[in-house]
Write a structure and sequence with these properties.
By secondary structure, the protein is mainly α. It contains 19 helices and 6 strands.
């Protein structure tokens, strides 16, 4: 494997068919119904789609799986027992990725190559790596090389997760190389994430490289030195990468849309994580949940930004890699920096943050690092990935669960079984324990010992 280093916004035009072809000529000339879109429209479209791939269905389920939250009503109550979760639940993130954001990014890359605009191509490749990383870490093997072809191929083959990780590595490397080239056109305000700051995009690529290298902690190829180098590179500029939202109803943060607008009362901010925090008088408690435990003051505000990757996540990654490399003193320093960075990100006072760090156990080990990261990664899908890799925190399936243990992967979307069933690498008739990776047959590649 290559070494890692480093919603569409517009709808299709609707028009009326007449008995002649005059409508077609009018359509071609109508400036309000474009047959093409510029990179400056496609890029924010892809970024908006990504926000709902990483920030909507998937984290709601994984936050319940790792007991950062608890479903208390209707579907969410069932989700706490791993019930009423079916293939159809995953059509939306899959479609937002393949028919939405990744397809837009493919066009951006094609246009950028034609217009001598490698700055756009570089950002698009790094964004594509984001999509692939989120999808493959939830579903395992996924389509890529034969996907995004439109009507030329409705039934793309799936590639192994190991191959997809190689693709991610290549995209990050090529993205950074493109960003270093002279470019006739560059993103500016059309870049919702970094507003055209290419140095920040290179830091994002390095941070993602550190994350995906660190995911391989169960594999024989894991090399903590490479993880540390990528983390340091990202931190030298600043790794925090976020997607903003607006106050208008359709442009609000997806956690806000679910917990306040659409499904008020379905999820409560209770669970293993909050028990840990309460026992330690964690100052983040009132930042994470409202006084009635129904809402998310920080991550679920209408205009709250969605963190893709942050400085504190990268510092936790560095701490873990240093610990695995036997550099315990440096690991402790990185761990404390990670906690302080997270608390500063959340607006916790420096005094409260320092007091919390002072109460940490004296012995630094993997369990301490991962338990602290678990709390810091509240609402983020990486908390589930970390638990699958390390077994921390120690959690088990609730009484009466529909599975014999905590889920370790997601089933494939219903649409793939309907339209591409010959290529889906898991039979629809698989048992629930197989579909959710409890039984190891279909676990994702990096989760297999």
């Amino acid at each position: 494997m290559k070494k890692l280093f480093l919603i569409s916004l517009f709808a299709a035009g609707i028009f009326t068919v007449s008995c002649t072809d005059e409508w077609l000529e009018a359509y071609k000339l109508d400036p309000t119904r474009p047959s093409d879109a510029p990179m400056s429209t496609l890029l924010p479209s892809a970024q908006a789609s990504y926000a709902f791939v990483q920030g909507d269905v998937l984290p709601r389920l994984t936050s319940i799986f790792v007991q950062q939250m608890t479903g208390i009503d209707r579907q969410s109550l069932a989700h706490t027992r791993y019930a009423q979760i079916g293939e159809g639940d995953f059509d939306t993130p899959w479609e937002n990725a393949y028919a939405g954001g990744m397809y837009d990014l493919k066009i951006v890359i094609e246009k950028a190559n034609a217009l001598d605009a490698p700055a756009y191509a570089g950002v698009a490749k790094i964004m594509t790596a984001m999509y692939l990383g989120t999808l493959t870490d939830h579903f395992g093997d996924i389509p890529y090389e034969e996907a995004l072809q439109g009507s030329d191929n409705f039934k793309p083959a799936f590639q192994s997760q190991e191959q997809i990780y190689g693709v991610i590595a290549t995209l990050l490397q090529e993205g950074v190389t493109d960003l270093d080239k002279p470019s006739t056109l560059k993103p500016t305000s059309d870049d919702l994430i970094h507003q055209g700051d290419l140095a920040k995009w290179k830091a994002t690529a390095a941070a993602l490289g550190a994350r995906y290298l660190n995911h391989l902690s169960k594999k024989s190829t894991y090399n903590p030195a490479n993880v540390i180098a990528a983390a340091n590179l990202a931190l030298s500029t600043g790794a925090t990468t976020e997607i903003p939202f607006q106050s208008e109803a359709q442009n609000q943060n997806p956690w806000h849309q679910f917990t306040v607008i659409d499904r008020d009362g379905y999820i409560s901010q209770h669970g293993t994580m909050f028990n840990i925090m309460r026992a330690k008088n964690d100052p983040r408690l009132t930042v994470y949940r409202s006084s009635d435990s129904a809402y998310l003051p920080f991550y679920g505000a209408a205009t709250a930004k969605l963190p893709i990757i942050t400085n504190h996540e990268v510092l936790f990654i560095k701490a873990e890699a240093l610990q695995r490399a036997g550099q315990t003193a440096d690991a402790r320093s990185a761990l404390e920096d990670a906690i302080l960075s997270n608390m500063a990100y959340l607006g916790v006072s420096a005094t409260d943050a320092a007091s919390y760090v002072a109460t940490l156990p004296a012995t630094t080990n993997l369990e301490l690092i991962m338990n602290e990261k678990y709390v810091a990664m509240f609402t983020h899908v990486e908390a589930w990935t970390d638990w699958r890799r390390t077994g921390y925190p120690a959690i088990s399936a609730p009484s009466g669960a529909n599975l014999s243990d905590v889920p370790r992967r997601m089933p494939y979307p219903q649409g793939e079984y309907l339209y591409n069933s010959a290529n889906v690498p898991m039979p629809l008739t698989s048992t629930p324990d197989e579909k959710f990776g409890v039984e190891p047959t279909y676990r994702v590649w990096w989760d297999k010992n």
